Amino acid sequence: MTGAKKYLTFTYGCQMNEHDTEVMAGLLEEAGYRPALGPEEADLILINTCSVREKAENKVFGQLGQLSAWKRRRPGLIIGVAGCMAQRLGETLRRKAPQVDFVVGPGDLHRLPELVRRVEEERQFVLATGWPGGEPVENLPVRRADRIRAYVNISFGCNNFCSFCIVPYLRGPERSRRAEHILAEVEALAREGYREVMLLGQNVNTYGRDLPGGVSFGGLLQQVDAVEGLARIRYTTSHPRDFGPELVEVVASARKVCEHFHLPAQAGSDRVLERMRRGYTREHYLRLTEIIRRRLPHASITTDLIVGFPGETEEDFEATLDLVERVRFDAAFTFMYSPRPGTAAAAFPDQVPPEVRRERLVRLNRLQNRLTRESNERLAGETVEVLVEGPSKTNPERLSGRTRTNKIVVFSGPPELIGQLVNVRITEAQTFNLFGELV
Ligand code: SAM
Ligand code: SF4
Ligand code: F3S
Fold first, then answer.
1. Residue 162: CB within 6 Å of ligand 2?
2. Which one, of 338, 316, 327, lies nearest residue 285 by Cα?
3. For a substitution probing ligand 2, which of 51, 162, 209 has the most ligand atoms within 8 Å of its CB?
4. Strand order in the sheet with 34-35
5. How does pLDDT run across 145-177, given as a tens digit for each residue?
6. How confident is residue 19, by pLDDT bands cut at 50, 70 and 90?
7. What is the pTM of this model?
8. pLDDT at 384 exceeding the cut of 80
9. Among 68, 238, 387, 407, which is least packed by CB within 10 angstroms?
10. Could you identify the atom of ligand 1 that is nearest to the CA of residue 50?
């Protein structure tokens, strides 16, 4: 084999993980690696993992099983595991999957080139799972997967310890990046021709609280809004406890910040919300969504919901259904509760049987799918602004893009439109897609 060594990545989990993979790809390229087109030509395979639900972890073990057979045929192949599972399991991962050559947690991601060099030279297992508590490391190289939309971290970690969630145990306490670093990155992206930035944090609404004299999240959004060249700004995730009317005002008066509010409710019953340690009530949540609807009637509101949290009764679950009906979410990510070892809720004695959890998820999805469809149908006949992202995944002959409210629209047009804002008239609405024609 001639030429550079090649790497291949796989990513599970959230957008932060997607972006971490982009940083690790940048680091590997700095270390002389080039992207492989498939596993056949890879010298290094890196799996960036997620621990948020058991299913996500099982998928990784399945994939590691397949790679073990692959490695028998290619003994020089280096296999690395990064991300939240790496942090959670550390050394145990190696016992469960001896084909793994190195394990790197989110706090040691910037050390990747050094770790890979050690594996190459010493051919020994390398473990780097230091606690992710330090100041954010700046100026790491990034190899972005997309040319139109770019992820930008604004904070790392989380201080909330919702009782169901493993993230704070794996990603460390909340650490904000300094606004000047964020702005410099966004300005560089705009100069490179990116049209959209997605600002990332586990709780964007508490951005800056850990920085002396730092700006608030609303202030940061206003500064990012002023950057020339971008078309759109998105952000995730908001926490209903820390999200307030002032942010709705910022969005309403900003030019580029999209009118889409992703506000994870998790549950609709006060008893469950309290046991989840979410720090808000159902009433508070409903009030926030009313404020959004009143100020920005065309905005979309989406959410995350968990069913079958320990102790959730049929009545509690119906309160979630009722909340969903009242808010009429445009879309929702719905999850069956998955006990995560070491979290408070995993030790609650009143776990809900799996079959009940499953049945509730089916009922919730049935309701939400209807609401999503109705929300899409309300757009039929309307003309909407679409940022063209690329060929449609389902039909590469057509283009696909998103509305400001984050709905996917498929339509016909020349590929030169990719990266541009166009007007599209919606002709057909389905549950997961809108179809339209260029105006
Ligand atoms: N920080 C964000 C927030 O507070 O919404 C996102 C956290 S998590 C990466 C994304 C979603 O996964 C959560 O909003 C929650 O609905 C879901 N989730 C987290 N832990 C879970 C668990 N143990 N079982 C099922 N779903 C879970
Ligand atoms: Fe997890 Fe809660 Fe933090 Fe979100 S806010 S990452 S759900 S602990
Ligand atoms: Fe993200 Fe999964 Fe970790 S959702 S923060 S990759 S546990």
1. yes
2. 327
3. 162
4. 34-35, 6-11, 44-49, 78-83, 102-104, 126-128
5. 999 999 999 999 999 999 999 999 999 999 999
6. very high
7. 0.97
8. yes
9. 68
10. 9
